[in-house]
Amino acid sequence: MIKVLIAEDQALVRGALVALLNLEFDIEVVAQAANGREAVDLVKTHEIDVLLTDIEMPMMTGLELIEEAKKYKPDVKTVVITTFARAGYIKRALVAGVRGVLLKDCPSEQLAAALRQIMQGKKVIDPELAIQALDDADPLSDKERKLLRLAGEGKKTAEIATELFLSEGTVRNYLSEAIAKLNATNRIDAARIARQKGWL
């Protein structure tokens, strides 16, 4: 049996994925999580072959979850399922070592077939997403990305500095760099552009 952990914040989508995959003769959903943090705890306590995760989730993104999960289960196969065909997401997912990237509207039999192929050591990328990934190059560093995400949430320079243990001057410098790289008018505009591209 292929043992799967699903991380998806939308209850309806999560329930549908669980139900559809449990209909397969060789796939069993052993755990499900509504956010990345919850999923990390489940990774630690469950024997799983595949971590199937959304990208945009509260508390921890799917890509951050994958990085954390690998610390506890380095051999787990990771698959991203997303609504967003954004080049930045796909590139970052591939860099993070995911074995599959699929769109949420793919047929359930396609998802099941992809999980079987991934268990055989293959990579499965939706063709539409693969084409997207060849487009825009992400100019942001990890630090700039983290700061922009917090700025986009409306946090002030002092709050960001405290949260990330940086000086306010350093925060301003990183944000200025990010704004310049994205040709944005301010930090909120930069966060919006980066989010649209899938870079946050």
Contiguous helical run count: 10
In round numbers, the mean pLDDT is 90
Shape: globular
Q: What is the CATH T-level topology of the largest domain?
A: Rossmann fold
- The oligomerization state is single chain
Portion of residues within helices: 40-55%
Q: What is the C-alpha radius of gyration, as a whole number of Å?
A: 18 Å
Biggest sheet strand order reads: 2-1-3-4-5-6
The H-level CATH homologous superfamily of the largest domain, spelled out, is Response regulator
CATH class of the largest domain: Alpha Beta
- Major beta sheet, specifics? 6 strands, parallel
Q: Supply the number of structural domains.
A: 2
Tell me the CATH architecture of the largest domain: 3-Layer(aba) Sandwich
Keywords: DNA-binding, Phosphoprotein
Pfam families: GerE, Response_reg
Domain HTH luxR-type: 133-198
Modified residues (4-aspartylphosphate): 54
Explain what you see.
With 200 residues, the chain is of the alpha/beta class. It has two domains: 132 residues, Response regulator (Rossmann fold, 3-Layer(aba) Sandwich), CATH 3.40.50; 56 residues, Winged helix-like DNA-binding domain superfamily/Winged helix DNA-binding domain (Arc Repressor Mutant, subunit A), CATH 1.10.10. Helix content is 52%, strand content 14%. It contains ten helices and six strands; from the N terminus they run βαβαβαβαβαβααααα. The protein has a six-stranded parallel β-sheet, sandwiched between helices. Strand 4, helix 4 and strand 5 form a beta-alpha-beta unit. The relative contact order is 0.11. The mean pLDDT is 90.
